[in-house]
Amino acid sequence: MNKKLRFSTLLLLFYIANVSPQSSQTCSNSVDDPVLDLNSITKCSIDRKSDDNKVQKVTVQVTSRRRRVVRKRNKATGLSSANNYSHKLASIKKKVNIVNSLVDIKKDEVPDVLPYDYVDQIPLFKSCESAPIYEQDRCFKVKLRSHIKKNLKYPVSAYDRGIQGRVYAHFSIGKDGVIKDLKIVSPYKGDLLGKEAKRIIKKLPKFKPGEHNGNAVAVKYGLPITFKIPGKKPTNIRKTNKIKSKETIHSFSSLDQIPQFDSCKKTDDDSLTCFNTSLIQHIQSYFAYPEEAKMKNMQGNVIVNFVINKKGNVVDITAKGPENAKILEVAAVRFIEKLPKLKAGKIEGKTVNASYSFPINFTLN
């Protein structure tokens, strides 16, 4: 009996040593397999063999509650990933450093008013204060457009007469967050549009003021507001006359007296410096970077050529800019088209046609 028991025990051990390992290499096809442990994925977890020995791929779906929570939190704060955030933040800091070096602003010499693009911290609508730093500029502009769209009322008289055009609003947001120094530049015969634009800007809420080098500063800002009647041509377009081909056109250098702005006439300053200064101020008043050009990263110098005729009107405006930058050329021509009537140039006491060229630099910070 003891011999039979001993023999059975040996037989059982032999079976365990030789048969069990082979069976452990067989992958189960049971539909009741437990969920795979991510720390113990084996070949059997990836490949299954069917009865005809063809490999069937098994898709392992990995889920993690913790990762889902992180993704939701990232979405809520606007952070797609830590690396992406760091990259954007570094880009912003680099831009700030470049701008500071360009304007050479020292910590103990902060001007009272700074351009919007130069400050460390832009002014903010209350609803934008919680936005990530790289989203604040977009938030500011979206809220500003929303305010204009919500409050704009086309002046009835201007609408009935077909008066349209673009109004340029320039203002500063003071250290107290209040709109100040509001200046409106209206289109030709578009004073009613200018008044409406002024009303809208004055209705802007109080902002969180901008900062630079840790100090609150007033921030100047400008934007165009377009008044357009769909399907109707504007009636307030200024007629532009062209110089007849036979008429002589003189350069500024050959004139006894160059054309001049009213502002220069009032101060008895007939110099070219005063002319250029007034021309620059005019362009700055109307300047607005074309949105399409921004999106396409278009930059460069546009040379504008124009003639001031014997009556002081600006005519024959042409522009030449960088290759494939027609948008910038069109914008430059529009700035010059809005020039006021000037005092005509003279030679030997007689008014003459005078040509002039001027560069307008389009640069994205």
From TrEMBL:
Record-level GO cellular component terms: plasma membrane protein complex
Residue ranges annotated for the TonB C-terminal domain, each copy included: 139-236, 274-365
Signal peptide as annotated in the record: 1-24
Tree of life domain: Bacteria
InterPro entries found in the cross-reference section: TonB-dependent_transducer (IPR051045), TonB/TolA_C (IPR006260), TonB_C (IPR037682)
Major site of localization recorded for this protein: membrane
Keyword set, alphabetical order: Cell inner membrane, Cell membrane, Membrane, Protein transport, Signal, Transmembrane, Transmembrane helix, Transport
Membrane topology type: Single-pass membrane protein
GO molecular function, one term: energy transducer activity
Compartment annotation: Cell inner membrane
Family to which the UniProt record says this protein belongs: Belongs to the TonB family.
Name assigned to this protein: TonB family protein
Taxonomic classification: Bacteria, Pseudomonadati, Bacteroidota, Flavobacteriia, Flavobacteriales
